[in-house]
Amino acid sequence: MTMFSSMNVSGSGLTLQRLRMDVAASNIANSDTTRAELVNGEWQPYQRRMVVQGPTSMGRFSTELQKATAELDQGVVAKQIVRDPTPATLVYDPTHPDANEDGYVAKPNVEIAREMVDITSATRSYEANVTALQASKGMVMKALEIGR
């Protein structure tokens, strides 16, 4: 491991948490969008987006020595952003321009409370990564002072 490995791990966490906050904010911004995309000639409501996350790819080893000493790629990464398959909510509003013949409007499957929980969770994780990054920076600075 290099002395910057922990900083790289924290940096990947910061990037991922920022993306999670951005996606949740986008979901909130589109929580009333009833015309997000045209499918088979009909407008569909916005579908909630979610971030699929996972570890960065692990290194490959060819010898036992490399297995014992090789540095692994560490951290997390957003694998993809997927749509939530939960069906749209039907709300009775016959005055809405997108209401069907029965007076129901298909509203996005976005729940503001869930998005706020996601934002709070991402914020706390972001703060934890900042704290870890600052601790790593402090250790590197102390190590450099020892070398003087």
Can you describe this structure?
This protein has 148 residues and is α+β, with helices and mostly antiparallel strands. 45% of the residues lie in helices and 20% in strands. The strands form three sheets. The protein has a two-stranded antiparallel sheet. Strands 3-4 form a two-stranded antiparallel sheet. The longest helix is centred in the last third of the chain and has 35 residues, at 112-146. It is elongated.
How much is the radius of gyration in Å? 23 Å
- Going by helix content, strand content and strand pairing, the class is alpha+beta
Strand order of the biggest β-sheet: 1-2
Ranges where pLDDT stays below 50 over 5 or more residues in a row are 61-66
Shape: elongated
Our estimate of the beta-strand percent is: 15-25%
Mean pLDDT comes to 87
- The helical percent reads 40-55%
- How many β-strand runs? 6
For the record, give the distance between the C-alpha atoms at the N and C termini, rounded to a whole number: 22 Å
Largest sheet: 2 strands, antiparallel
- Give the number of helices: 3
What order do the helices and strands follow?
Answer: HEEEHEEEH
